[in-house]
Amino acid sequence: MFRKISYAACAFAVGLKNKVDLPDSPLLSDNSVSKLNLQRCLMPRVSAGTGDCQLYVGDRIKRAVGFPQLTACCKPLRYKDFIISYDTKNRIPNWVYEHLQYHKFYKDDPCDRRVNVCPYNEDNQTGQEKPKFHPDCRIHGYHRADVRDYCDTEYELGLMADPANYPFDSEACAETQVMTNVVPIVPGFSCGPWFDLQCYIREKLVRENKSVYVCSGPLFLPSENDGKVQMRFDVLGEGEVSVPSHFFKVIIIETHDGNLELESYMMPNCKPEEGEEVKLDDYLTPLCQIEHASGLIFFPEKKVCFTSNNKRRGARLHAL
């Protein structure tokens, strides 16, 4: 008797399945059948090998072998007074962020006993030697740049986080010599408008405002060659360190009344012409152009609102 009941139940189930599979089934409308077929196409049944659970392709790959990562240390690297996002492919930073405040540069209190320890500053009172460049062991050995990569090349070691920004802090000043903060620059670049921009930030923006956030980094812009637009750049040494074509600085100024102002600059990695009159305003660049060239979005969470941009030149921000 029980065997007959089981046979009947199986027959009913098979008949029901056949009805569902047919487009003209009275149990389902045309739209329901289309959705059912679409779900079957998008979510194939996959056996997990030992169990009956369903896994999709991405889940199987992640469980079996994992996904490739740019590096074992893909998060931003934290240092005492700045933070770096490192590009393991090009062996240079994606960006370097600093937070500059007046009290870290200047002392108004005569009882302030801090001594200028930055060897790159003319006011250095210790006469100590410049710190040596050193690697960051958090970066995989395959992806580290080395000082030897710059030997016998026409390029110099440039720093994104400027040691002169930390005149009273020997530890922070020494940390700027880490190779993750280094980029190849053309000789004379750091003595031109890039130097003027750094001085402008320290001597004017930091002095006159509550604080300043500075994001610096390299850019790779295409150039025209034989009628074709191509991405061409040099690589240095066995580490194949990439030489950027341009550099950017995105500056967020926090005023004393709590407002935020934005200035963004882009400069070519080249030596200025002899006798050329340099004006920083000539390098002001809309933020959207820097974002396009860098692949970065500087304010993805849109937590900030600016009262002005690029000295009120009217360059639009992205959907802010």
From TrEMBL:
Gene Ontology MF terms: metal ion binding; nucleic acid binding; RNA endonuclease activity; single-stranded DNA endodeoxyribonuclease activity
One GO BP: apoptotic DNA fragmentation
Gene Ontology cellular component list: mitochondrial inner membrane; nucleus
Keywords in alphabetical order: Endonuclease, Hydrolase, Nuclease
Signal peptide start and end residues: none
Lineage start: Eukaryota, Metazoa, Spiralia, Lophotrochozoa, Mollusca
PANTHER family (alphabetical): ENDONUCLEASE G, MITOCHONDRIAL, ENDONUCLEASE RELATED
Occurrences of domain DNA/RNA non-specific endonuclease/pyrophosphatase/phosphodiesterase (ranges): 78-305
Name of the featured protein: Endonuclease G mitochondrial
